[in-house]
Specification:
128 residues; alpha+beta; Arc Repressor Mutant, subunit A; Dna Ligase, domain 1; 4 helices; flat
Length: 128
């Protein structure tokens, strides 16, 4: 039988993978807490952080907001609605290696598109 910590990690990871909305740690905790109220908020935050550091999940650090998490680690891009903030995955598109004249060691590239989700787009078109 798996120990408590392993079971908690599995529950948290499975919950994240079932949430396709790129949730914040608080959102994952809220979902986990509904069916497993003994798992603490700090455990959820710690497990998500550790899993991101280990490359088992993605942490999306958004300017001016909480980090979001993604259970899909295969290469892909993201799109975020500029009105409501909803996020979705997009297939990866080739991105060329830029010339670096600043001396950085380029390690990875994350592509984030901004636009309007279908719902906000319909609302905007209805107001015209």
């Amino acid at each position: 039988m798996a120990d408590r910590n392993t079971m908690q990690k599995e529950i948290i990871c499975q919950t994240l993978r079932e949430m396709h909305c790129h949730p914040s740690a608080a959102m994952v905790y809220d979902q986990v807490h509904q069916s497993h109220p003994t798992i603490s908020r700090s455990t959820v935050y710690r497990v998500l952080s550790r899993m991101a550091e280990e490359g088992k999940i993605l942490r999306l650090d958004l300017a001016g907001g909480d980090s979001r998490y993604d259970g899909e680690v295969e290469p892909h891009s993201h799109v975020r609605c500029r009105v409501c903030g909803v996020m979705a995955d997009l297939p990866a598109a080739p991105v060329g290696q830029p010339a670096d004249d600043q001396g950085f060691l380029l390690e990875e590239c994350a592509v984030m598109y901004r636009g309007l989700c279908p719902c906000c787009r319909r609302k905007a078109e209805a107001q015209c």
